[in-house]
Protein 1
Amino acid sequence: MNQRFKKIENVSGTLILPGDKSISHRAVMLSAMAEGESILYNCLLSEDVITTISVFREMGIKIDIEEDKIIVWGNGFNGLTEPDKNLYLGNSGTTTRLLAGILAAQKFSTTLIGDESLSTRPMKRIITPLRQMGANISGENNCLPLIIKPTEYLRPIHYELPIASAQVKSCILLAGLFIDEETVVIESKETRDHTERMLGLKVVEDEHGKSIYSSMDYYPIAAEYKIPSDISTAGFFMVLASLVEGSELVIKNVSVNETRTGVIAVLEAMGANITAENVTEINGEVRGDLIIKSSELTNVEFDDEIIPNIIDEIPILAVAGVLAKGDFDISGVEELRTKESDRINSMCRNFELLGLNVDERKDGFSVSGHITNYSAVLNSYGDHRIAMAFAILASIIHGEFTIDNFDCVSVSNPNFLKQLESISKL
Ligand code: S3P
């Protein structure tokens, strides 16, 4: 479906956004592995998380979706059963990579398949460490389909992450839960830490970074999860409220885990007016209400260390940068080429369609000049975050913009359009 967007004159009101995608995936997975009933409040029910729910149902886990909660009836250690078909993982990289860690320890074989985008995403990053652990895993050209067969035994490893990836870290830590002795993952650049928080893993920090320990001692137990709203989803509305003059927006109960708040830090450095109220910690995850008032934004330099923290927010931060004072420039983000689309390419092509000057590099890009085309048809590239980032751009400036295949937003936020409408005065 193509979707048209027009400038919003004013943004006001309160938004209650769905649960954090990373935490929702993990809450379903850990509950499915635990013994007994877990209750998940504010779990995101987007396509990606529904994929996670579906694959655990296919492995014998009863999961009830009720109006205000999800109930997962875990079968405990060795409680997953062999699915009778290939596991279809849709568009979800997080499901695939985390699940592979769990499946590596099972006594049955599985084949993981996905949609066109997921089928081209790199899996060597998990195949290599899982093989070091003794897992029997292979992928066609290191991509999907992934075939995971039972192994005699898994051994613990000490693994320094060659790329800053919470998915790879979590994959190894989840496999480590099936082993007596300690597996250690060492990360030199901090990535989101939901897995270690939710499992209560031991974390030791020194000058080289963080070492995270996993073993059978940390095997998940049934729990109640109160999932905060997704800061990555909130990021789109933070930029909208910042750049539409005279706006004031409240976004309730947003995850402000410091491995995820880089988007706020960057926007504040650009001059945004964002404050957090009612900050509390529940289930080891900090959350608070964000109040955003409009302000002038100016481009800033990106610090290398912050990139993993803002990896999902770069599309919306690039939109903010293009509309801010000065030229937008970012480097060290080659990882963006391995996301739901090649996000460097997706952003650069759309900025060109708007008439901007783009300098695309292997690991980044810069944008200068002025928007000259105010009636562009922009491409989502089937990528939810590209679709939403350009929808926000089209809601801030004058003109008539269309974004193709806008349905892809359902991957992380099926109600994006309703939320946008609820806070907009046209
Ligand atoms: C995620 C980690 C990030 C992020 C993705 C979710 C997670 O991926 O981009 O949307 O839940 O662990 P990488 O770990 O591959 O950077």
Protein 2
Amino acid sequence: MGLKVALMTRHHAALICEEARNLLMDAGFEIISNDTGRILNREEQKELIEDAYAIIAGTEKYDADILSVCRNLKVVTRFGVGTDNFDLDAMKKMGVQVGVIANHNAVAEFALTLILASMKNLTRYDAIVREGKWGRFPMRELSQKTVGIVGFGRIGRRLAELLAGFDVEILAYDPYMNAAAAAERKVASVSLDELLVRSDVISLHLPSTAETHHMINAKTIDKMKDGAYLINTSRGSLVDENALCEALVAGKLSGAGLDVYEKEPVTKENPLFSQENDVLAPHVSALSYETNYNGGIICAKSIIQVRDGGKPLYPLW
Ligand code: NAD
């Protein structure tokens, strides 16, 4: 029996490509997987990971208690990039290496889609036409506007590249700003306040932490331009949804494009559900065939590299 790789992801389980599975099996690993189609409960999760050398993780939690059952764990690769479900301190203490995949193009393309869908009233026109009405009302153009990117990491930078053809001014705020990356993409590095005040569209691309919880709230929305648009493909916890909803109802904000929510899956109880000027998606920004394929390969190669004394392809440390 080879070293075990626990494939924990829920809906992606079947999507980890054949080539990635073959890479692992040819390298002598045994794959054990969550075939339930749902997130495992804690006991099921513990059972699957206790002997694993590597975990390919989804959005299920890895706290110190769950990790305490692991006897052989050396590497965890997240089939995604958000690691807010990981106790990273516990993993570090255990000497476990942690890697993520590259999904920045998929997410940046989806953020751009939400920007355009919001400004172009796309979902509202679609609903009107299907209702047999011919309601025509104007939309906005992106060209000549100012786009503010909060968090200038992999996804924020890719979005700036995709926006390059739209004749927009791009501002970015990041407390750990890579000045060369900003300059290369003709992006002005500004304070969060300046970004809030000057942007017609604000797109969030930063992690969910205690510090970033509700960074978009009644106070910060108040600083935003009247009629601005908010796009969130990062994490629901970044936005106070009640404050956002009030701003959409009052017309302070023209629209919002959202892929993530404070509580997922989003249901009718969420006031954002009944708003007309928001575009809602079910946390799918990264869910492209291309990213699933490449993600599987990255996870497999990362695990093999760690076994051979190296590091994951996209290591956290
Ligand atoms: P990244 O680590 O490359 O970039 C994150 C950036 O945020 C970093 O440059 C960091 O310095 C910056 N940052 C940290 N704290 C900040 C703060 N207080 N204010 C502003 N910036 C701050 O990550 P990424 O790959 O660009 O991903 C960004 C986020 O997108 C992830 O954390 C994840 O939660 C989310 N995401 C969502 C989906 C989805 O399916 N909707 C998919 C992938 C990623």
